[in-house]
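TA notes, week 10

Several of you asked for a full example with nothing omitted. So below is the full record: structure tokens for the whole chain, then the designed sequence directly under it. When grading your own attempts, check the secondary structure regions first.
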């Protein structure tokens, strides 16, 4: 890597949380005199560029990093306008979005070919997001190699890959099974597998998973937290891509009310409804928001909240989370125990690691189809907020 003409091409995926990690990696992999290429989407009009460009503009300039725009037309794949990243997509279109991302294959090949033509040699390597499975073929076609970059944690990623490769649950005689690559004493449960993996009968791997405008100002959020005693507030968020079912949302709300614990809940429409639409009071118990406001017990935040600021506040005592890796890292870095409710991707394995291996979490339930009751919610919230959470971290 001694030549100043060496190039590394980095390809971040267009989903919340992925670009920031790729940018961080690019800075770490950026030696003196090296150029580093990254890609982002090209939009037809400047005013239509969403949070991805806000994140680019907010990052400090890197003199040895060249940003290269690549064309990406979602309309060619039947997706609505302004969905060039997954932020504005309803859940039922996420699969189509992943298919649309294959449209970047030819533009990336052209980029690599241009580098070969100008420099007389291919880039040192391509580092692509794990969701760009086609990058291996493209890199090989110009005489270089592709390295796959995952934004997930090592434990969850190992579990996810091993499950798809080995399908050990298909041979197991019970709901618990051993997973190759893990200690013999470690057992996984069938409910930790999402629906498609549970029904898989072959080993063909299928993979599915920037600044945002907050639904509340950081100042207002912190002022509300200041009203409560140390370690007394439960923070609830299921990440940028997830929600829960209408019945689960109702039971969660009742359980929170019955617990009497103060909470901040980042709330979105339940699964089955447009997640960008206005939140409806009918999805919560009658009079719920008025009651928690009068009690100063709860704060409902639409869309997005300043998560790291909330987790670092002294009043925050626990985090009810989907166990996405970003959320796990932010919670643990602030010493906040987790109540796990994994929903998709490798989240069930992250939850298992946190609860069984690290002892910093209690799993409340799993998935969108669990019949969680308000009594179970109250029981686990009381356990973590009153007793267990104090010795977990």
């Amino acid at each position: 890597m001694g030549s100043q003409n060496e190039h590394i091409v980095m390809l971040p995926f267009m989903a919340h949380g992925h670009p920031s990690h790729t940018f961080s990696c690019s800075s770490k992999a950026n030696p003196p005199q090296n150029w580093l290429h990254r890609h982002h989407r090209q939009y037809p009009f400047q005013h239509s560029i969403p949070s991805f460009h806000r994140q680019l503009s907010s990052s400090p300039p890197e003199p040895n990093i060249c940003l290269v725009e690549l064309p990406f037309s979602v309309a060619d794949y039947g997706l609505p306008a302004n969905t060039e990243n997954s932020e504005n997509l309803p859940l039922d279109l996420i699969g189509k979005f992943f298919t649309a991302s294959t449209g970047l294959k030819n533009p990336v090949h052209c980029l690599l070919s241009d580098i070969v033509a100008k420099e007389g040699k291919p880039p040192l390597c391509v580092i692509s997001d794990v969701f760009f499975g086609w990058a291996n073929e493209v890199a090989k076609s110009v005489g270089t190699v592709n390295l796959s970059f995952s934004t997930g944690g090592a434990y969850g990623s190992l579990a996810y890959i091993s499950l798809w490769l080995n399908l050990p649950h298909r041979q197991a005689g019970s709901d618990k099974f051993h997973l190759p690559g893990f200690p013999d004493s470690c057992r996984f449960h069938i409910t930790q597998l999402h629906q498609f993996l549970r029904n898989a009968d072959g080993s063909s791997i299928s993979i599915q998973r920037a600044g945002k405008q907050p639904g509340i100002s950081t100042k207002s959020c912190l002022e509300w937290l200041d009203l409560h005693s140390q370690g007394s507030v439960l923070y609830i968020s299921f990440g940028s891509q997830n929600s829960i079912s209408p019945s689960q949302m109702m039971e969660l709300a009742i359980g929170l009310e019955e617990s009497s614990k103060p909470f901040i809940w980042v709330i979105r429409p339940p699964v089955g409804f447009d997640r960008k639409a206005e939140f409806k009071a009918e999805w919560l118990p009658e009079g719920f928001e008025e009651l928690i406001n009068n009690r100063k017990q709860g704060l409902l935040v639409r869309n997005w909240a300043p998560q790291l600021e909330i987790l670092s506040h002294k009043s925050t005592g626990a985090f009810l989370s989907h166990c996405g890796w970003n959320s796990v890292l932010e919670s643990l870095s602030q010493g906040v125990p987790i109540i796990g409710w994994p929903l998709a991707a490798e989240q069930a394995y992250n939850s298992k690691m946190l609860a069984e291996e690290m002892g910093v979490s209690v799993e409340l339930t799993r998935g969108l189809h669990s019949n969680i009751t308000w009594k179970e919610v109250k029981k686990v919230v009381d356990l973590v907020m009153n007793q267990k959470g104090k010795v977990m971290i």
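The chain has three domains: 7-149, 154-199, 218-392. Use that as a sanity check on your answer.
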